[in-house]
Structure formats: structure tokens, C-alpha cells
Amino acid sequence: MDEIQRPPMKGRGAVSNATGRYERDTRVLTDDGWSGDGWGGNEALSDPIRTIVAAASARSIITRNQSPDVAFDQSVNPYQGCEHACIYCFARPTHAYLGLSPGLDFETRLFAKRNAAELLAKELRAKSYVCQPLALGANTDPYQPIERTEGITRRVLEVCRDFRQPVCLITKSALVLRDLDILAPMAADGLATVSLSVTTLDRELARVMEPRASTPGRRIDAIRALNDAGVPVSVLASPMIPALNDHELEAILEAAVAAGATGASYILLRLPLEIADLFEEWLRVHAPNRADRVLSLMRQSRDGALYRSGFGTRMKGSGPYAELLRGRFAIACKRLGLGGRHWQLDCSRFRPPPAAGDQLSLL
């Protein structure tokens, strides 16, 4: 029997659901020949896949890293998996640790850390805790659609507000505006910044590349609303994909500046582990005429491979194309008066609130 491909589904990013790299058995779709429809008589193959949300039993919530490529040392991720379904998401391979596929499973089988706020308060109250800015959304988006009903990100922000813990939010969702009542007062005290990811201004490209994220226009509007509320905003023109959205780099920065962004950064597309195959599969379906060109330029920027994980180059790449992109970004930022992303926050204000049973201070 021949392996077959599931047809692309509206509202989903990945085309397939390839078995995770740690699984013993590999599962493939096959046509068993029992039907003339080419789908083996299994109509469910073309049916929509519903999102399933399960509780994650987290034992700790602050994740720490020592990577020289990122500006933060600690982060909180309220969710595992992301319904935004961005095909390029570098978090996709983490679903393999759960025995699931980085493909469709990553965007349809989600895990919510419903005790995140309680765990965060406990860890911030520990005597050994040293206050540093906390990145929220460094892996999966804290404002993905299920946040509307789960509310975990908002509860985490409430803890940060009560402890006066500086927080840097990273998202591509206009849902962040729901929490302006928390973010604006924190920002006034130097305790909060937001980075909005704007990958493209082309709504049709966004629809197939990041199908359940806010539209590009709504993200630009969110930058404007955050700026109007006094919250420092950066734009993330990421990822830049050769021959697909890289021509929009300057236009994205210009639109963000016009809306009030004062900081910016970009990342060259990263294709670690399963993402390489998932992204190529997506290209062949949604941009077949550009696929070979995109992949060729990626290899030219990664020393002949689709991805190199070494510190120092994994975010920006190397070679002529990568240098050209780096130069374009620098020139555009200088022309537009854009600085780097906002990470400088006031850690001196950190104060754990009294816990139940604590003796109150006389001062």
C-alpha cells in the first residue's frame, strides 16, 4: 500500500502528523484500496481535527536558560502546544517529549498548566529567588485562543503585579489588550513590556502560515493600543523566510513604527529537528513554485544544511544572504529610529506581598 497525505485542513498549519522522534513505531496514512475515493474508505481523514485541551501537572513553572542568544534568563510558559498553528514554530519539536507529533498534534492536543499562578507565587516567594525580568511566551504563545477560556496568563500576570515582578510578554495575539488594566500600571512603574510578532503584512500568507493567530492588521492595531496605554512595545519581524516574506522586512518595521513601536528584532527562519520536514511539506503544498528557491537560500545561510544549531549563528545565519538581511535590518532601524527590544526593567521594586499568617511590617 502507498503512503498518502492528508489534504490541508482549514485553520491548521501542518499538513501531516508525523510520528515523534522518540516513538518506537512509525505511523503512516495508507490507501487500503477498499474505496475508489483514494482515501481507503476512511472519510475521517478529511474531517476537521478538534482541539483537545488537557491539564498539565506542572511541578515547577520558572524555566531557566543559559543561552547567549537570548536576552532573558528565566521564563514562564503557561501552555504546551499552540493553537496558533504557525508552521515555522520552533517549539513544535517539544511535543515529541510528550509522545505526540510535532505536526498536527502540536496545534490540536494542548496542555494547560492550570496551577501556573500558584507555582509562580511559591517560587517568587522562595528565599533563594533573585529577581530578574521574566519572559512570558518565550516558547508557546501565552495568548493563544484557549487563553480566552483558561485565563492562565492573566492569573500569572496578577501574580507578577502583586510581587512587582518585571515581565516581558511575547505574543502575536491582539488578546494581549484584554490585560491592559494590569500591564499599563506595571509599565508605568517600569515593570512590563510587550513584543508583538509580525511575520507578514499579507493577510493571505498569514492565513496559511499562522492560521489561528491574529491577523497582521490586528497586531499592528495592538501595537498602537499598547503604545497609547503607555506600554513599551517592540516588533518582532520573525521569522524572516527567504523568498517568501523577507521582502516585507522594511514594510513591517515601518508599519510598526507608525503604530508606536520603539524597539525591533528579527530572526532568520530556524528549522530544527522535525520542523525541517514539516516546513518543506507545507511549502510544497502552499507555495510549490517557491519551495526550491526558499530551501536553497536556507541552505546557503546554514553552511549547506537546512539548520545549524550553534550559538552565535542559529538566530541570524551566515553567508551572503544572511549578511544582506542583517544589513537591511540595521539600515531600516537606523532610518526609523528603532532600538533593540525592551528588556531593561526595574527589578529594584520586587517585593513579595505578605502571605497568609505572616506578621505585618510596622513600616
Structural key phrases:
363 residues, alpha/beta, three-stranded mixed beta sheet, single chain
What report would you give on this structure?
The protein is of the alpha/beta class and 363 residues long. It has 11 helices and 10 strands. A 7-stranded mixed beta sheet has the order 2-3-6-7-8-9-10, with helices on one face. Strand 9, helix 8 and strand 10 form a beta-alpha-beta unit. The longest helix is centred in the C-terminal third of the chain and has 17 residues. The N and C termini lie far apart (77 Å). About 2% of the residues have low confidence.
Order of helical and strand elements:
EEEEHEHEHHEHEHHEHEHHH
Q: Indicate the percent of residues in helices.
A: 25-40%
What is the β-strand count? 10
Rg over alpha carbons: 21 Å
The major sheet is characterized as: 7 strands, mixed
Number of helices: 11
Order of strands across the main sheet: 2-3-6-7-8-9-10
Q: Give start-end ranges of low-pLDDT stretches.
A: 37-44
Average pLDDT metric? 90
Shape assignment: globular
Q: What distance separates the N and C termini?
A: 77 Å
**Structural class from helices and strands?**
alpha/beta
SSE topology sketch:
Layout: E1 52-55, E2 63-64, E3 74-76, E4 79-80, H1 104-108, E5 109-112, H2 116-125, E6 134-136, H3 147-150, H4 152-163, E7 167-171, H5 180-188, E8 192-197, H6 203-209, H7 216-228, E9 233-240, H8 249-259, E10 263-268, H9 275-286, H10 291-300, H11 320-336
Parallel strand pairs: 1-5, 3-6, 6-7, 7-8, 8-9, 9-10
Antiparallel strand pairs: 2-3, 4-5
